[in-house]
Design goal:
single chain; about 575 residues; GAF domain-containing protein; Heat Shock Protein 90; HATPase_dom; phosphoprotein
């Protein structure tokens, strides 16, 4: 529980009574500051300049009685606790005091007892007022943070996020000023700000008055200031009383302000980056000139990425209680996540642009140029009979590249389409047609099938490419004199989904483990990559329709490739 000093303004024209009251109150209350004024007009002037938690006033005073002072106090601070003390103590006075809205009423008496009672009344009144104020502020803060969080969903750039957050926080009744700073090479540089700024950032951060004003201001981060501590620890740091002595307690996990020993507490300076007492005084002066009495530094960190620090300032001391710090800390995490998401989206857009360029080159330029290569290979074959063998090799390789280009073009169209479910496709006919075409191209291969009459799955015509790629891969990499490839289709039911499995097995050397691993992990490295485009295309297309591609071993030798697709109902049903 955070415990703040209780500041009492005691208005009493009897100097002896005022002195005794101040001494005993400081003995009875753990952390109290009693400030005495002998004249009501002086008390009102002081109340306009300083923050107090409670007013204790005598009733009979020259120039203005206690009830008249109460009316004047209410005009300055309407909800400030006000305790009236009187020596007369008539019922009429008590009734008038209650009707006027006095917080409490106490008769003056003899001895210490009256001051002990007064201490209890002050402590109770201040605690009640602080609790009410904290609840109302927390409701306001929760509504504010919710509203600001919703704006993060609409932002499309990091700049939009930072500007929107600063503007909305500063426009609220809770904070005067907000700014976001980035950290580079041990220096903090403001990026966006909003609210009652009035040149504050320039005054605090710019060290050279002659420096070009167009250059972003920055200051080195010094060990001990709230910003550097927030970035260092990854936790929110606060300066709870800028007008105070310049130091603030920082909670240590596992303890509180009231039960920590000095060894378990840390004392840190509450200023911006500074290197000396004079620079600390400079920062405090500039902050107080603009009405800043407390501040919070919230790190913007998501996973291992640090995106800077959000700083907010309030117009009264001790604005950031434990609950508010927790809310702001979580908001800082949400803001960092939003910045990270925007960066991810921007990177995806850039990648998509690069892919579009590569696809254009692959689909058009490469195919057109290879057709030219084929034409020149035919000319070489006719003009130079001795180069016929080399010309055939050129033609074969060029044709293979054209085929890859066609596969990429067809599959690219499928992957670019929105949605993932596809339509109902009859897979048996696709397999039979693929086997028929491949048997003509590879007459020495034994192609056998175990197929149902019909089998419907979710997909589209690119499943033709999938079946052809897997079967042709099994044929071309088979090192047997009598290669055998078998295809079968079976139905597999599970609790959540009904599947159709296409199983292609062969008696070749098998698909290398490293190539299987590349496809399973979904990425290639410099030392580990797939041998070609075919299986990648197969993997992407099957994944497009929420299917699965798995690999196994065929006994005693060979590989088994299983394509699992979601089963569909026949359109004729």
């Amino acid at each position: 529980m955070e415990r703040r000093p209780i500041r009492v303004l005691h208005v009493e024209d009897n100097e002896f009574f005022a002195t005794v009251a101040s001494d005993i109150l400081q003995q009875e209350l753990d952390d109290v500051e009693v400030h005495t004024e002998n004249a009501p007009c002086d008390a009102l002037s002081r109340l306009k300049e300083e923050q107090f938690d409670c007013v204790v006033s005598d009733y009979e005073m020259p120039g203005m009685n206690g009830l008249e002072l109460l009316d004047a106090v209410r005009e300055i601070r309407s909800e400030l606790p006000f305790i009236l003390m009187t020596g007369g103590g008539s019922e009429n006075t008590a009734s008038r005091a209650i009707s006027a809205g006095v917080t409490d009423y106490l008769q003056k008496g003899d001895g210490r007892r009256q001051f002990v009672a007064l201490a209890n009344r002050i402590e109770n009144a201040v605690a009640h007022r602080r609790a009410e104020k904290a609840v109302r502020r927390q409701i306001t803060i929760n509504d504010l943070i919710w509203d600001v969080s919703q704006s993060l969903l609409e932002a499309s750039t990091r700049e939009d996020i930072e500007q929107s957050v600063c503007e909305r926080l500063a426009d609220s009744e809770s904070y005067l000023f907000a700014w976001v700073g980035k950290v580079e090479d041990g220096c903090i540089t403001p990026r966006f700000s909003a609210g009652t700024e009035a040149g504050y950032l320039d005054a605090v951060f710019r060290t050279d008055a002659e420096e070009n004003e167009s250059k972003p201001v920055s200051r080195a981060l010094e060990t001990g200031d709230p910003i550097s501590r927030a970035l260092e620890t990854g936790e929110i740091q606060t300066a709870q009383d800028i007008a105070g002595d310049g130091f603030s307690k920082v909670d240590i996990p596992g303890g509180t302000d009231t039960d920590c020993t000095k060894e378990r507490q840390e004392i840190v300076r509450t200023g911006e980056p500074e290197t000396s007492d004079s620079s600390l005084e400079h920062w405090r002066e500039k902050a107080l000139e603009r009405g800043y009495h407390s501040k919070a530094a919230i790190p913007l960190r998501y996973e291992n990425s640090l995106y800077g620090v959000l700083n907010v300032y309030a117009d009264h001391p001790h604005a950031f209680d434990e609950t508010e710090r927790q809310v702001l800390s979580k908001f800082g995490n949400s803001m960092a996540y939003a910045i990270n998401s925007v960066r991810t989206r921007q990177e995806l857009v850039r990648r998509e642009q690069r892919l579009q360029v590569f696809n254009r080159i692959l689909r058009h330029n490469l195919r057109n140029d290879l057709n030219v290569v084929l034409g020149h290979a035919d000319n070489i074959k006719e003009a130079v009979p001795g180069a016929a063998k080399s010309a055939e090799i050129i033609k074969r390789k060029a044709t293979e590249l054209i085929n890859i280009s066609e596969k990429a073009r067809e599959v690219g169209k499928t992957l670019d389409r929105s949605g993932q479910t596809g339509t109902a496709v009859e897979i048996t006919s696709i397999i039979e047609r693929a086997c028929s075409d491949l048997q003509e191209s590879y007459p020495n291969v034994v192609l056998s099938t175990e197929l149902p009459n019909t089998a419907w799955v979710y997909g589209d015509k690119t499943l033709n490419t999938v079946v052809n790629e897997v079967v042709e891969n099994a044929i071309e990499h088979n090192d047997r004199d009598d290669p055998v490839v078998t295809l079968s289709v079976t139905a597999v039911d599970s609790e959540r989904e009904n599947w159709t499995e296409i199983i292609i097995s062969d008696n070749g050397p098998g698909i290398p483990k490293e190539e299987q691993l590349v496809l399973i992990e979904g990425r290639e490295t410099a030392l580990q990559h797939g041998s070609g485009l075919g299986l990648w295309l197969t993997n992407w297309v099957v994944g497009k329709f929420d299917g699965e591609l798995t690999f196994g071993t065929n006994e005693p030798r060979g590989s088994v490739v299983t394509i699992r697709l979601r089963r569909a109902e026949s359109p004729s049903r």
